[in-house]
Task: structure prediction
Amino acid sequence: MSGVGKGIASASIGRVLVSRGLKVTAIKIDPYINVDAGTMNPTEHGEVFVLESGLETDQDMGNYERFLNTTLPAINYMTTGSVYLEVIKKERNLEYKGKNVEVVPDIPLEVIRRIEAAAEKADADVTIVEVGGTVGEYQNILFLEAVRMMKSKQPKDVATVLVSYLPVPGSLGEMKTKPTQYAARTLNSAGVFADFIVARSQVPIDEKRKEKISLFCNVPKEHVIAAPDVASIYDVPLNFEKDKLGEYLCATLDLNCKKPDFSEWQNFVRRAKSAKAEVRIAVVGKYFDTGSFVLSDSYISVIEALKFSAYELGVKPVIEFVNSKKFDKDGKELASLKEYDGILVPGGFGETGIEGKLRVIEYARVNKIPYFGLCYGLQLAVVEYARNVLKLKDANTVEINPKAAHPVIDVMPDQKEKIAKGEYGGSMRLGSYLCKLTPKTIAQKAYGASEIIERHRHRYEVNPVYIPDLEKAGFVFSGRSPDGTLMEIGELPASIHPFFLGAQFHPELLARPLAPHPLFTAFIKAAKGRK
Ligand code: GLN
Result:
């Protein structure tokens, strides 16, 4: 089921194989009709992870990039919608040469074509393919059919892993294997037989239950891999290693691999565990509500990026989610923000929670609390500065008020047309762009470079008309597009504020456990300083 940890299991299998010197790539299959993840609300589907190419994908792509410490191309992500779209396009172009195009086998064949293309592009020894959704549901059956076809064609080159949950009902206190037995059978009915079963559970699965699963699910006992809940997801590859998953997987696929070397990964995990002194960070967003539950998936890359930089600096991040909607009406509760060492406003869209975010940004600026704005977090910092420092009371982003007297954040010219035509899917300024840094600014010093490449996802930008006034009033644009027209980073000088910086791009998408992001590190350093 979703949330059981297939993404982390896939990424961790990747890490286990990378540590054996193998070249690994990873693919995510999402069973949605949506052609990409860009049109889904984060509370529906979690964070939208933007690839270097600009493709808007599932957050698991972020897990793969982080665990594998790699950059993945667009071919590594597919949805039902994108597969059908391609098949229909080919049919319209007569590429099937008059043949009757059918759901089976043409859809699974297109899936296989993509898997093979991704493997080839990465020159990978192993390609991990995560099939999203739940075994037995209608939506992913054609992807399982693709798995079946691949395995029947090349049985020795394909290994299948079933990630299943083993509940320990509170009233019983005993781990139950039946749901997993049924899951294995349901998978069998799709013609797919698991080679491995990753046993997700609260506590590690015991020997007795491994035996039971082995007997009833047709897998060798040692192919039942314990995957208990962990304090840190980065422990998972090490736990898999304890159960020798890497060794058995290499044997199953007949791979020639080196002795595992986990030293770099272990150093990172050790650093994470030894960090004691806390820094408290407020992430002020709005994509948190899901019924009576609070969701953190919408901001997963941001949270992980904060962790990597904190661990690098030897501090433990205490990250709290603050819903900006609570400051929308008035600023009565703003003083509660004093207890934080840093405030971060992540990316976002639309109107809700905006007045609240603006109040929070003003509070951070005036009270000199380290502030880090990502995308919308930069745009709103500019709106706040225009309203409260330039005294342009009606300053706004046209995303919220198209008729604002002072549209300090304006729609990018090419975006105007797209919005007018209702072309919303995959049409923002997306993916990697070059940015030039202004010497001696906080940003430039943090990067230690004069040019950077970062990933974007936005339709609006700082309105060039207001740049001279903003600069005169002390706002510094420390990063610009190479032609100088787009403001990519804005900051306040260190003499005025310990750290007040916003980026038009999404630095969180490039933060990696083994390579923390310099802007996040600069922010955490400032937060540590405040503490
Ligand atoms: N809504 C803003 C824009 O479209 C910011 C986007 C974001 O934060 N990713 O420009």
In short: The two ends are 41 Å apart (CA to CA). The chain has a mean pLDDT of 95.
